[in-house]
Design goal:
Length: 254
């Protein structure tokens, strides 16, 4: 059952933490995080602290149930906006953050950068409805330890979490291939893949119907700055009007 189904029909079965080497690629590095609370070498009871960032309450409920079934001794704190997530990261340390890309006040990639600036050792798993080709490479470059889509099986999210808590990165085979071929992909890519993270964020907000003034307020930038981004987008995407930008964003599911 994909994760998207879990959110509407919360499962009670325990999620298995084992994984098939053929279904994912685990990129190893030196462990930077504490062991799982139920690991055999744990000498004392310790609750794993997870920061769960998603703007949909029903998604958070489903994820909390899945995580509780999969792991022991959890302390899960929720955040519904990017600003709330940043505030909670400033208050205390976390063992793991699970972060959505689409947030009501800012883009998840921007939140990712700010979280990593505040807590460089914090492992962040991006969980998004967007397919890998849209944001996964940007997320990994921004410091994410894993990128999992919400239509994945619950076992895949559990596997990704287990990997990053052990100090490794988690990528699917298809994403691993993209990572290997990035230098050779200059030609033939959609124009929006060449945008900066901020330009892509502004394009996404334009596509959602927000005005220049609303975007400026949400990003805490001047209207003039957002207007400049809009002009850059028109130039880089070879478009002429804001309506064309909206159509482009909707067509490419941005």
């Amino acid at each position: 059952m994909p994760l998207a189904s879990v959110f509407s029909s919360i499962q009670s079965d325990r999620v298995l933490l084992g994984f098939d080497e053929g279904s994912a690629v685990i990129l190893s590095k030196e462990p930077a995080c504490p062991p799982l609370p139920n690991a055999p070498d744990s000498h004392q009871e310790r609750r794993m602290k997870i920061l769960l960032v998603d703007d949909h309450a029903i998604v958070r409920v489903g994820l909390k149930q899945m995580l509780t079934d999969a792991f022991d001794q959890l302390d899960i704190t929720e955040a519904g906006t990017g600003q709330e997530a940043i505030a909670k990261a400033q208050e205390t340390t976390w063992d793991l953050a699970i972060l959505d890309i689409n947030l009501p006040d800012t883009n998840g990639l921007d939140v990712l950068k700010r979280l990593k600036a505040l807590r460089p050792s914090l492992p962040v798993v991006i969980l998004s409805f967007h397919p890998e080709e849209q944001y996964a490479l940007r997320a990994l470059r921004g410091g994410a330890a894993a990128y999992v889509t919400k239509d994945s099986a619950p076992e895949e999210l559990a596997t990704a979490i287990k990997a990053v808590l052990a100090g490794r990165k988690y990528v699917t085979p298809s994403l691993a291939e993209r990572l290997e071929s990035v230098p050779a992909q200059a030609a033939g890519k959609p124009l929006h893949t060449l945008l900066s993270d901020r330009e892509l964020q502004v394009l996404s907000m334009i596509g959602s119907g927000k005005s220049v003034t609303e975007i400026a307020a949400a990003l805490e930038l001047s209207v003039k700055t957002i207007s400049t981004y809009r002009m850059r987008l028109l130039s880089k995407l070879q478009l002429k009007t804001t309506s064309a930008l909206i159509r482009y964003a909707l067509t490419h599911h941005l």
